[in-house]
Amino acid sequence: MPGTFILSLDCEGKWGMADHLTADHHRWLTRERLREAYVRLLDLFDEYEIDATWAFVMAFLLTPEEQHERDALFQDQPIDGRNWLVNFRAAQAEGNMDGWSSPELLDLVASRGGHEIGCHGFSHLPLDPAQVPREVMAREVAAASSVAAEKVVALRTFVYPRNLVGYPDELGRAGYRGYRDRLPVRPGARGRLGNLLSEFNVAQRAQPHAPLGTEPLAIPSGFFFNWRLGARARVPAAVTVRRWRRILGDAAASGGVAHLWLHPHNIISAPSTFDVLADVLRDVTRLRDRGVLEVRTQDAYCAWLTTH
């Protein structure tokens, strides 16, 4: 049986950093620069004929006017003692929604055909049960569904904000087929150090398939594609390519899953990330063309797994 390759992208603009925006975020996450990044990635995926899952924060797909009109969807919620929407509210008061609203990105992705539009939450609110109660999760899912209905988008898979998995049965009630699972990680500085050191693991294996019998499916978490910024820039590009070559080769040999994920804006703040990604996708197409690896979106993976 051929292996499976999944490529998913967390599409969030400033919503991903809603609680800790910096001057760099304001510089990088502009409407123009985000559009350029999405076009570059779409062109790359077209070149290698790869369909991906673009998981959008649904509030990001509303125009500033629509955000005002649907203010009832934006519920204040404390996370770590601070209102999650404080920076969003400040941007609204200033009348500068650059990075908070980019509905044209949905049109860009949809215009290419083949890609899946997934959900990355409504406001990128962390949905860890230790931080929010079930009713907040249900409210976020309902708000995301209302935006999807307006945009005529069928949401089938979910990517949890900050990979904090909680209340997956609420996704099942809303009709989701699957969600991207989370690798177990240590919190804090040790966890960050461990993540960095894992980038040097050139013996990394592919992952087994999602277990059947649960709804929605827990799609194999995959691995974050190295974002070549700060300390991560010290990871040689050749090491990243070698690591992914091992993951892909193991998926092809074992029939397992190689799931790569990143944020589109990673190629804004660290442009060399794009070139390394292109090298890895070249290996994906080589294995696909040999018939030992199949490329699937998250939704297509769930459909395939449940029928095979």
User: Poorly predicted ranges (pLDDT <50, ≥5 residues)?
Assistant: none
Q: What would the average pLDDT be, to the nearest integer?
A: 96
Order of helices and strands: EHHEHEEHHEHEHEHEEHEHHEH
Q: Identify the overall geometry.
A: globular
Between the first and last Cα atoms, what is the distance in angstroms? 11 Å
* Tally of helical segments: 12
Q: What is the β-strand count?
A: 11
Major sheet characteristics: 6 strands, parallel
Task: Map the helices and strands.
Elements lengths: L2 E9 L11 H6 L2 H18 L4 E4 L7 H6 L8 E2 L2 E2 L2 H9 L9 H9 L3 E4 L14 H17 L6 E2 L9 H6 L4 E3 L7 H11 L18 E3 L3 E2 L12 H18 L2 E6 L3 H4 L2 H18 L3 E3 L2 H10 L1
Parallel strand pairs: 1-2, 1-10, 1-11, 2-5, 6-7, 7-8, 9-10
Antiparallel strand pairs: 3-4
Helix pairs in contact: 2-5, 2-11, 9-11
Please name the defining characteristics of this protein.
single chain, 13% strand, 308 residues, alpha/beta
Structure description:
This protein has 308 residues and is α/β, with parallel strands linked by helices. The chain is 43% helix and 13% strand. Strands 1, 2, 5, 9, 10 and 11 form a 6-stranded parallel sheet that branches. A 3-stranded parallel sheet has the order 6-7-8. It has a two-stranded antiparallel sheet with strand order 3-4. The longest helix is centred in the first third of the chain and has 18 residues, at 31-48. The protein starts with a strand and ends with a helix.
